[in-house]
């Protein structure tokens, strides 16, 4: 028998009054809280005090009334809405288990005799207790040194940090499970989509915080070398580039017909014995269609919590596949990323990928092609006594190819867009020598061709050195637009897309007009010379000289978005 349920006589079947008037509106005053519901709702919990009291007129007469004629219960009504929602829908948005509100709700549930609701609360209490036991067991697994009187200040600080990590792990695991339970409880469709989305976003936030805490635990004792964020179009080699930097298969690389990275993940990996890297591998923008403001908003919202969890961003990598045809949609999406990160440009690096394919070597990468032809038959790495081509050699070769292929009347628009894109990054360029699946297998088996092994190692070390030299320090909490609400973010995304489309239109006009096309070619040539020299000198400063010249030529307007992002 349920505690708090008073017997009101034998349980009876619903009377004719109940059957006939189930839709009657009933007003209740529960401890000063006024509620309106139907008689049918009150009768829905079989065997409850409410069912017995409102089954017929005789029973109703036992319930007192207030001055307004409402049925009065001298009880705590602060949680009665939860009981009513449960009776209406078979589920409810419960207060946090173990909280004072939870205790109040349980007391009132017992009083009114809502048996099924009491059983559900019992289940949640049992799950919470099990979670607490599991969290305690997990925290005991963290290698926290025992306290000692002769500990140095450094040892005491280390012990306190490990204790904090263990405590955070337990708390975050419990929070995540509580949210997962609430989502499971509402899976029957009783919670509207907006509320489900908010719960899902909260779960994502907690999971990211837990992952960040786990990174601190796994990498304890190693120094963080840098935090990386990599973005780009789908299939442009983002995950492969991260694998190259990390010298491991840390990121899953999709095949040509498979989906690429889905969602946004915060991860870490050991770089060497003393250092680790924290990174975010993002879902790619579409490669075949220009991203819309809705799609861009989705990308921003998914990535926001990941970026905030990093705390510091050192480098933003924007991947660019030079082996694929430069379609209008592809350039539009690259320009979208340029707009999105315009205020962070000093941290942005352009990552050239797939520049080592045979097709690219034949088409424009003569420095690499000549080097490969000289050394591809080498039987050992020791035979190879010549460094691979430098960044500046290949950048100059790529720029010459762009001028020759696109600086004409038919492709003038594409040429202007490419010039704008390269001007944004200046000397902040990485040539990432990524291995394909077969080459990776050969490397793991020690069977990789010597010349490919030399190229992989050389360009990986060059990329790491470039990132070190060009590293910045951006505190993510200072990026106010990341903390804006969805409505503001939607406005920002829409404005970014409008600016991008206007810019594309103006660049197309530059390509159509002979005089402007000639001026664009002159700017591009000067820019290629200047950037080549700056790459050689490791000059990664953001000067904006050629960006401003192209903007002046095309007539761009500099505006400030709602959330504080400046776009040009």
From TrEMBL:
Name of the molecule in the record: BTB/POZ domain-containing protein KCTD12
Gene3D superfamilies registered for this protein in UniProt: P-loop containing nucleotide triphosphate hydrolases, Potassium Channel Kv1.1, Chain A
Keyword vocabulary terms for this entry: Nucleotide-binding
Superkingdom classification of source: Eukaryota
AIG1-type G domain sequence ranges: 227-356
Molecular function as annotated in GO: GTP binding
Pfam short name (any one): BTB_2
A Gene Ontology biological process term: protein homooligomerization
Region ranges (Disordered): 134-158
Residue ranges annotated for the Potassium channel tetramerisation-type BTB domain, each copy included: 26-117
InterPro entries (UniProt xref): G_AIG1 (IPR006703), P-loop_NTPase (IPR027417), SKP1/BTB/POZ_sf (IPR011333), T1-type_BTB (IPR003131)
């Amino acid at each position: 028998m349920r505690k708090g349920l008073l017997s009101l006589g034998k349980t009876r079947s619903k009377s004719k009054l109940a059957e006939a008037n189930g839709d009657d509106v009933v007003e209740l005053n529960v401890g000063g809280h006024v509620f309106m519901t139907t008689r049918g709702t009150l009768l829905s919990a079989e065997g409850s005090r409410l069912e017995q009291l409102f089954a017929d007129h005789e029973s109703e007469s036992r319930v007192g009334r207030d001055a307004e004629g409402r049925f009065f219960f001298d009880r705590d009504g602060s949680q009665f809405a939860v009981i009513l929602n449960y009776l209406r829908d078979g589920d409810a948005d419960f207060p946090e288990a173990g909280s004072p509100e939870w205790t109040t709700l349980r007391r009132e549930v017992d009083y009114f005799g809502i048996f099924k609701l009491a059983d559900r609360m019992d289940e949640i209490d049992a799950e919470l207790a099990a979670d607490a036991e599991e969290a305690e067991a997990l925290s005991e697994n963290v290698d926290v040194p025992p306290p000692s009187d002769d500990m140095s200040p450094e040892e005491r600080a280390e012990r306190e940090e490990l204790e904090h990590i263990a405590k955070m792990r337990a708390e975050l695991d419990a929070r995540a499970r509580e949210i997962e339970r609430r989502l499971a409880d509402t899976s029957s469709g009783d919670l509207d989509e907006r509320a489900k989305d908010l719960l899902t976003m909260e779960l994502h936030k907690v999971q990211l915080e837990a992952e960040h805490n786990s990174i601190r635990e796994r990498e304890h004792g190693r120094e963080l070398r840098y935090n990386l964020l990599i973005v780009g179009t789908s299939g442009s080699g983002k995950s492969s580039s991260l694998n190259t930097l990390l010298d491991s298969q840390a990121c899953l690389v999709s095949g040509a017909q498979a989906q690429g990275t889905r969602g946004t993940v915060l991860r870490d990996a050991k770089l060497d014995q003393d250092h680790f890297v924290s990174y975010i591998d993002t879902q790619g923008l579409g490669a075949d269609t220009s991203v819309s403001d809705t799609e861009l908003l989705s990308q921003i919202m998914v990535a926001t919590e990941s970026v905030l969890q990093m705390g510091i961003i050192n480098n933003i990598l924007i991947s660019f596949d030079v082996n694929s045809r430069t379609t209008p949609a592809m350039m539009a999406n690259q320009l979208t990323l340029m707009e999105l990160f315009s205020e962070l440009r000093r941290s942005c690096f352009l990552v050239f990928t797939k520049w080592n394919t045979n097709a690219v070597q034949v088409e424009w990468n003569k420095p690499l092609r000549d080097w490969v032809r000289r050394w591809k038959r080498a039987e050992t790495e020791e035979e190879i006594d010549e460094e691979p081509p430098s960044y500046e050699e290949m950048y100059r070769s790529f720029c010459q190819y762009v001028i020759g292929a696109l600086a004409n009347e038919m492709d003038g628009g594409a040429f202007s867009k490419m010039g704008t894109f390269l001007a944004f990054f200046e000397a902040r360029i990485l040539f990432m020598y990524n291995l394909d699946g077969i080459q990776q297998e050969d490397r793991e088996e020690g069977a990789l061709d010597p010349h490919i092994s030399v190229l992989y190692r050389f360009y990986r070390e060059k990329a790491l050195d470039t990132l070190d030299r060009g590293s910045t320090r951006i505190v993510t909490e200072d990026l106010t637009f990341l903390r804006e609400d969805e409505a503001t973010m939607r406005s920002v995304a829409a404005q970014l897309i409008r600016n991008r489309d206007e810019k594309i239109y103006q660049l197309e006009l530059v390509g159509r007009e002979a005089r402007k096309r000639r001026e664009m070619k002159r700017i591009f040539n000067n820019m290629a010379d200047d950037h080549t020299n700056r790459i050689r000198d490791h000059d990664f400063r953001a000067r904006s000289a050629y960006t401003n010249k192209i903007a002046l030529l095309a007539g761009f307007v500099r505006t400030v978005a709602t959330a504080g992002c400046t776009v040009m």
